[in-house]
Design a protein that fits this description.
The structure is a single chain. By secondary structure, the protein is α/β, with parallel strands linked by helices. Helices cover 34% and strands 23% of the residues. The strands form three sheets. It has a five-stranded mixed β-sheet. The chain has a two-stranded antiparallel sheet with strand order 1-4. The longest helix has 23 residues, at 72-94.
């Protein structure tokens, strides 16, 4: 069975095999705690080349401010909060810390060995030029450094890509 594609920030995500995607921002678990808690769009379970499961925590945006813009620090803080909160809520849900998680989580997530699971914190910006990605990646890596260190995530845990890269990684469908 296949999960139907869905649209976020002008990009069509999916289709994904059934049970591999959790739209965490629309979950009942998140609805119960959402007051003042920013949340990324979805979690996507993938296998890395070595077979290790990896949860991609994805936030999608249709644009971003330039690094020299006055609202750039606020933008980075918002994305940091969304990705860090989705990581924490995803893990808390897998650990069944929230009663609603039992119904929200696909079975593949419920049976994950968290100790053997990797994570990617991914920001996708629709229509962004490749040359604009590096400053965003640097700023977001710096902002998420405490999260990466606390959870012992790998050096490549924070990823900033555009829609072209997202298509190449099989995250979004062709327009």
């Amino acid at each position: 069975m296949i999960m139907e594609p869905f649209t976020e920030s002008g990009m069509q995500f999916g289709p994904y095999p059934d049970g591999y995607c959790l739209r965490i921002e629309q979950s009942n678990t998140y609805r119960k705690i959402q007051g003042g808690v920013r949340m990324a769009e979805f979690l996507l379970l993938r296998r890395q080349g070595d077979g290790i499961p990896c949860i991609w925590i994805v936030e999608a945006k249709s644009s971003s401010p330039r690094p020299e813009a006055s609202n750039f620090p606020e933008f980075i803080a918002e994305i940091r909060d969304k990705l860090a909160n989705a990581l924490a809520l995803g893990i808390a849900s897998i650990l069944m810390r929230h009663p609603a998680a039992l119904a929200d989580l696909p079975d593949r997530f419920k049976t994950l060995d968290l100790a053997a699971t990797d994570f990617r914190l991914v920001l996708i910006i629709n229509g962004h030029k490749k040359s604009w990605l590096a400053p965003l990646q640097d700023a977001l890596r710096k902002a998420l450094h405490p999260t990466v260190q606390t959870w012992a995530l790998g050096a490549n845990a924070v990823v900033v890509i555009n829609d072209q890269d997202a298509r190449r990684f099989g995250l979004i469908s062709a327009p």
